[in-house]
């Protein structure tokens, strides 16, 4: 009787006490890991477990890296379209520079031609002065000497240059041979006499010189 009472009232059976004294959650490191896993997973609406949202974790997107590489490559290498535009710009610039050079050259040629047309009216006067000087009609210190000198100075100032002198090698580009004669003393065709002087205005030949030519035998 005493033993039954002790078992029934005095103390709790070992099995029942063990169940009541069991901790609510397991202890130890493994228990902590299990709790973290349980906390990270929560049941969804359909009963399936889904990962609970936690603090943001910084991740690297492969697409971002590829885009960055493309930007760097584009920055370091010229774009094909830009290269074509640059080449077109250089070509147009060169063509414009050549056009300006041609225009300026043509303008100078036209100016010389216009001056030459005016000067051509003076050439017969210069021819008469040359003949008079050749025959001794323009004596040094004579009344016409100063006038002739001023006239020649003014026509030279506008760019008129005389062509043809005795002893020059014959050049069919600037000389017109009106007579030829053999001469054993010359090695090449040589101007023996100038009948009528030729003239340049700038780079334009206004008139070829009419000359007598000595030819080697």
Automatic annotation (TrEMBL):
State the UniProt keywords alphabetically: Chaperone, Cytoplasm, Stress response
Q: Which domain of life is it from?
A: Bacteria
Give the Acidic residues compositional bias ranges.
53-69
Q: Which InterPro entries match?
A: GrpE, GrpE_CC, GrpE_head
Spell out the GO cellular component terms annotated for this protein, sorted alphabetically and separated by semicolons: cytoplasm
- Biased composition (Low complexity) is annotated at 27-40
Q: Where is this region: Disordered?
A: 1-86
Q: Give the signal peptide, or none.
A: none
Fetch the PROSITE patterns from UniProt: GRPE
Subcellular location(s) of the protein: Cytoplasm
This chain's function reads: Participates actively in the response to hyperosmotic and heat shock by preventing the aggregation of stress-denatured proteins, in association with DnaK and GrpE. It is the nucleotide exchange factor for DnaK and may function as a thermosensor. Unfolded proteins bind initially to DnaJ; upon interaction with the DnaJ-bound protein, DnaK hydrolyzes its bound ATP, resulting in the formation of a stable complex. GrpE releases ADP from DnaK; ATP binding to DnaK triggers the release of the substrate protein, thus completing the reaction cycle.
Whom does it interact with, and what assembly results? Homodimer.
The entry's family comment says: Belongs to the GrpE family.
Q: What is this protein called?
A: Protein GrpE
What organism is the protein native to?
Clavibacter capsici
Q: What is the lineage of its organism?
A: Bacteria, Bacillati, Actinomycetota, Actinomycetes, Micrococcales
